[in-house]
Amino acid sequence: MEPAQEIFQKPFSLNSSISPPGFPAPWHWHEINEIYICETEKMHYLVGNILYEIYRGDILLFNSLDVHRALPPETENYARKMVLFQDTFLQNWNTTDYELFACFHHRKPDFCHYRSPNPEDYEKLLLLFNKGMEAIESNHPASQLKQQMILTEILIFLNEIYAVPVDRKDHLKDLSEEDFIQDVLLFIEQRIRDEITLPQLSREFGISVNSLNGKFKKITRMTVHQFIIQRRLQLACILLKQGKSVSDSAYDSGFGDLSHFIRCFKANIGTTPRSYALAYSV
Fold it and tell me: Which of 30, 139, 152 is closest to 91 using CA atoms?
């Protein structure tokens, strides 16, 4: 299955979930910011072409450009907490001196989505999360105002944590097989606008096509083709938001056939590239 765009109707929501072992977490992205709190003892998370190793209490941040997928353990329950919000929920809360969404919007190319807060900060985040849940479930007339205040406090807290630089290489999977797949992911990323074929990758890495696909799917839980498609769709969305035409966005993101691009885009995003671009131009 190729990546899907998740649609959220509410501008602010919190979720605490536990799924059984073997839960097939989907590969997706969404036009909303996400604060992901790992509640699983140890697992892995794929963000674009970056494969993170994370532990209970760790945090990941995703903005609308991050295609991501959890790779939970297959023999243990998959537990996590998520805070989801649109910028518009706090659109009047920024000041000229402070950017609430700094850790989501102002990112360098080597941005590390991952942070591991100390126990005290982790408990503080959980306390804010629980307060947010109470505010959402409350019928108090000032419920939304309380939600905005709590989200603001969460964002200030995260900006402080993410202001400290972290080398994401320290948190990537480091076993030999996963190192190999990380190299394949990087190779694809650097040539995403060019034609990429399995035989080409096979020759580049000195491995048979079947072995390459098998290893790739074992680690990422998708085929090489599925991964390439999702990365190109993500790039196309960025280009359309920037005002590029449908045809330029298709070719500049690596789709050699315009009609195929349109079919693929509509099947995954739920609308045509033109409609998507018009929505953002408005």
Answer: 152
- What are 118's two structure tokens? 């100390």
Instruction: Give SS3 for 155.
Output: helix
Q: What letter would DSSP give residue 64?
A: T
pTM of the model: 0.71
**Residues 37 and 18 sit within 8 Å (Cβ to Cβ):** no
Q: How far is Cα 108 from Cα 177, in angstroms, rounded to an integer?
A: 28
Q: Over the Cα atoms of the chain, what is R_g? A: 20
Give the angle 124-116-75 at the CA atoms, nearest 5°.
Answer: 105
Contact 156, 102 (CB under 8 A): no
Burial 56-75 (b: 16+ CB within 10 A, else e): ebbbbbbbbbbbbbbbbeee
For residue 261, what are its two tokens?
A: 């691009």
With a pLDDT cut of 90, the percent of the chain lying above it is: 47
pLDDT, one tens digit per residue, over 196-247 is 988 899 888 878 888 888 888 887 878 899 889 988 998 898 899 889 999 9
Distance of CA 259 to the CA centre of its chain: 27
Residue ranges in 94-197 assigned as alpha helix (H)? 102-105, 119-137, 143-162, 176-190
